[in-house]
Specification:
- The complex is a heterotrimer of chains A (239), B (256) and C (223).
- Chain B has a domain of 67 residues.
- Chain B is built from 9 helices and 12 strands.
- Chain B starts with 5 loop residues before the first strand and ends with a helix.
- Chain C has one domain: MetI-like fold (Orthogonal Bundle).
- Chain C starts with a helix and ends in a 5-residue tail after the last helix.
- The chains are: A mainly alpha (239), B alpha/beta (256), C mainly alpha (223).
Chain lengths: 239, 256, 223
């Protein structure tokens, strides 16, 4: 068996690196899509009509608990075959839709927990000050609800980055595709796949540390009434 | 009767750069009731936490019933005690905490049965009988199957006392046991301590802010200030007119 | 488009994949939780070397992508060490359980650390040994904190089983892909059915997660 070869490693490195631009831009596109779409979920599930709210909750649950890989295939292979509304989409767009929608259901929950953690007194105070409904949201509630969720949203950026290689299965030419192509061409998988792993580690590990720091800072600033504070409950609890 | 139950010999304790105890010498006699008072941060709690082995002294030694608590002999030399040695020596000591520290995942009865069964290898039936007896004694015989979250703070503290008592300690330590309680719940807890004290068998050390109570039940009162025992004596000596200015001003804050 | 006849063709084929999906899931759950506890406790160990090695494992598996780990285990690992992982089944199960085991070990560690310090002290005051303190007092409370998170990971693991079709295992998605490539116009119904299959498998896990959340609210110190 031929084992590790540095020659192959350095030969494969530029080839794999070529996909990095695509991987990163796909990550950002999917993430932005999920951030925006997440807001959509958060608001439509506040519709005060029970059956509709119930339906939306189950749709979110359905999207969240079925594999993103299958959802990608659905959008890429099946959507064009759907009569009337179906259109063919290129791999990149399919991936943005598929991963974006999948993770928007998670991000919607993050927003929701942020909003629910705003003290009910804030609603009452803004009513007492005669703010309009729109003003309540934009001036009072959201400015308090969103900042504490930033570290959690940051976590989802890293999660998204690690999910993006799924898109190689529908032909998006990110680093994983490049490594697989190299492997298929020269029948050397070890080095290119290791390069991919290293690239992921190099990019995601420092970001994770950064977000960890941010989280600690936020915790100090927003004390315990925030989402993160709530997640950390139990620490120092006594009985 | 003349041999001290516990002996502190020149005990020092530092946390990082801060020395909280600067040479404590103290004898506790069998069945003696000692109240420890003093401003917060004076190191009162640290004294009993070291005796309970929750905190290791920086230097000095603590002798419990003739045995060195924090050191043991190993091939002719004194070395820091290991877990096994600590378990051997601290078996006679029990403690009640400021924040109760009841086990939330166990019922009141289980809270009082677990240690006898697992630590003392008592059989279940006798451990249960003993636990019920002690819970009756603290007035909670009707709460056996409740969980700690379902009872009041005063009741929790009484359970904590029953939990310590089932182990038949010779020495009981009370760490500001009423300061986390609502004022109206304090008396029911003090009542139980009074009962235990009147039975008389145990050595008791009470770190407390309840001056009236300390005067009532203590044989001796220690005033701890800035890491040393600044004053000690019978309650009437300490709470009477003292030469010590710091003690005077400390007590005046409570008389108001 | 979706005719009863087509459904009759598709359904029996897809259902053949359920056995693989479920067995990969079950094996991954068992091995994943096992890894989580072993790694979680190792990270709390007094032994520095053990702590560092487990720390390295956790960071590597959390820092890279599951699909990359799967391919690496399946294609690269045998080359590097000259040994096969055994089969694509084990490559899949190992990748999933090592990946999620790394994430869950952090939950194990965090939960144990977040049991209030007073609990250990009370147990010490009752003269319990180190092991008894962990077994009787700290661990039972820590587990209650872990459970809801563990429930969420059940669903993540279920979703990740779909990846094993990429290394040639004949799971639900594999049969879905076969059906799609034989008749592209069936694709919408095929994938919709595949999604529904996964959702049906997820339902008991969702239910279990809710139960665990309820259970964990009861017995943990909070005041």
């Amino acid at each position: 068996m031929n084992s590790w070869s540095w020659e192959v490693f350095f030969d494969a490195f530029p080839a794999v690196l070529e996909g990095l631009g695509i991987t990163i831009s796909l990550t950002i596109a999917c993430y932005l899509f999920a951030l925006v779409f997440g807001f959509g979920w958060t608001f439509i599930r506040r519709i005060p009509i029970k059956p509709i709210r119930w339906l939306i909750i189950w749709v979110m649950e359905f999207i969240r608990s079925t594999p993103p890989l299958v959802q990608l295939f659905f959008i890429f292979y099946a959507w064009p075959m759907v009569p009337v509304i179906g259109v063919a989409l290129d791999p990149f767009t399919s991936a943005v839709l598929g991963l974006g929608i999948h993770y928007s259901t998670y991000i919607g929950e993050v927003y929701r927990s942020g909003i629910e953690n705003v003290d009910s007194g804030q609603w009452e105070a803004s009513t007492a000050l005669n703010f309009s409904n729109r003003q309540k949201w934009t001036k009072i509630i959201l400015p308090q609800a969103i900042p504490p969720t930033i570290p959690m949203l940051g976590n989802y950026l890293i999660i998204m980055f690690k999910e993006v290689p799924l898109a190689s299965t529908i032909g998006v030419l990110g680093i994983l595709s490049m490594a697989n192509d190299y492997g298929a061409q020269y029948w050397r998988y070890l080095e290119p796949l290791t390069i991919v792993a290293i690239l992921f580690l190099i990019l995601s590990y420092p970001s994770a540390i950064l977000i960890n720091r941010l989280e600690k800072k936020m915790n100090r600033r927003f004390d315990k009434k925030t989402v993160l504070g709530r997640m950390n409950k139990g620490k120092g609890a006594v009985m | 009767m003349n041999e001290p139950m516990v002996k502190f010999k020149d005990v020092h304790k530092s946390f990082g750069d801060v020395e909280v105890l600067k040479g404590i010498n103290l004898d506790l006699m069998p069945a003696e009731k000692v109240a420890v008072i003093g401003p917060s941060g004076s190191g009162k709690t640290t004294i009993i936490r070291m005796l309970m082995t929750l905190e290791q002294p920086t230097s000095g030694s603590i002798i419990v019933d003739g045995e060195n608590l924090w050191q043991m002999e190993k091939s002719g030399r004194l070395v820091t005690a290991n877990e096994k040695h600590l378990r051997q020596v601290r078996g006679d000591i029990g403690m009640v905490f400021q924040h109760f520290n009841l086990f939330p995942h166990m019922t009141i009865l289980q809270n009082c049965m677990t240690a006898p069964i697992h630590v003392k290898q008592e059989n279940k039936a006798s451990a249960k009988a003993r636990a019920i007896e002690m819970l009756d004694k603290v007035g909670l015989g009707d709460k056996l199957d409740n969980y700690p979250s379902q009872i009041s703070g005063g009741q929790k503290q009484r359970v904590a006392m029953a939990r310590a008592l089932v182990m038949r300690p010779k020495i009981m330590l009370f760490d500001e046991v009423t300061s986390a309680l609502d004022p109206e719940l304090v008396e029911e807890v003090l009542e139980v301590i009074r009962d235990i004290a009147h039975e008389g068998r145990m050595t008791m050390v009470l770190v407390t802010h309840e001056m009236e109570f300390a005067r009532d039940i203590a044989d001796r009162v220690l005033f701890l200030d800035k890491g040393v025992i600044a004053e000690q004596g019978t309650p009437s000596e300490v709470f009477g007119h003292s030469e010590n200015e710091r003690l005077d001003s400390f007590l005046r804050r409570f008389r108001r | 488009m979706i005719t009863i006849n087509a459904l009759n063709d598709v359904f029996p084929i897809l259902i053949q994949g359920i056995k693989i999906t479920v067995s990969v899931l079950l094996a991954s759950i068992v091995l994943g939780y096992l890894t989580a506890f072993v790694a979680g406790f190792c990270r709390l160990s007094k032994n520095v070397i053990l702590r560092k090695i487990t720390g390295f494992y956790v960071e590597v598996f959390r820092g890279t992508s599951l699909i990359v780990q799967l391919f690496w285990l399946y294609y690269a690992f045998p080359i590097l060490f000259g040994i096969e992982v055994g089969s694509n089944f084990w490559a899949g199960v190992l990748a999933i359980s090592l990946n999620y085991g790394a994430y869950m070990s952090e939950i194990v560690r965090g939960s144990i650390l977040s049991v209030a310090k007073g609990q250990t002290e009370a147990a010490t005051a009752l003269n319990m040994s180190r092991f008894q303190r962990m077994r009787l007092v700290v661990f039972p409370q820590a587990v209650r904190m872990m459970l809801p998170e563990f429930g969420n990971y059940l669903i993540l693991m279920l979703k990740s089983t779909s990846l094993v079709s990429l290394i040639g295992m004949t799971d639900i998605l594999y049969y879905g892909d076969i059906l799609r490539s034989s008749n592209l116009s069936q694709a919408p119904m095929v994938y919709l059915l595949v999604l529904i299959f996964y959702f049906i498998l997820a339902l008991p896990l969702i239910w279990l997660t809710r139960k665990l959340e309820g259970f964990s609210k009861k017995g943990v110190a909070s005041q």
